[in-house]
Amino acid sequence: MWQVEIYARLKADNGQYFTTEELLFKLHNLMANKELGDHVFFENLAYDDHEFEADDAEDVDDDDEGTPVFVVWLGS
Fold first, then answer.
1. Segments of the chain with pLDDT less than 50
2. pLDDT value at position 74?
3. For the whole model, what pTM was predicted?
4. What residues does 41 pair with on adjacent strands?
5. Torsions phi, psi for 39 (to 5 deg)
6. Which of 11, 28, 43, 64 has the most CB within a 10 Å radius?
7. Contact predicate 72/32, CB 8 Å
């Protein structure tokens, strides 16, 4: 196994904001098919203290510039 970072761009169903349930449901669905070893329990969702910059990745829309970045912490 290798330790990796998984990046995902999520959009709210209503196009404006996430409800707590919707966000947790989407995060769960993203992680459900990943081999996480013993790190399977949700521990925290933390703001990464910066915003997405288009220079950080290839193949991204300019509309994503300034999008807040969050980190999901999983534990065992």
1. none
2. 86
3. 0.71
4. 75
5. -90, 75
6. 64
7. no
- Alpha carbon distance 30, 19 (integer Å): 17
What pLDDT sits at residue 34?
84
pLDDT of res. 25: 95
Report which residue type is found at 11: K
The CA–CA distances, whole Å, from 70 to 1, 27, 35, 42, 45 equal: 24, 11, 21, 14, 7
**Is 43 within 8 Å of 76 (Cβ atoms)?**
no
**Of 6, 3, 2, whose CA–CA distance to 69 is shortest?**
6
Task: Fill in the amino acid letter for 58.
Answer: E
Q: Give the pLDDT confidence score for residue 52 in this predicted structure.
A: 62
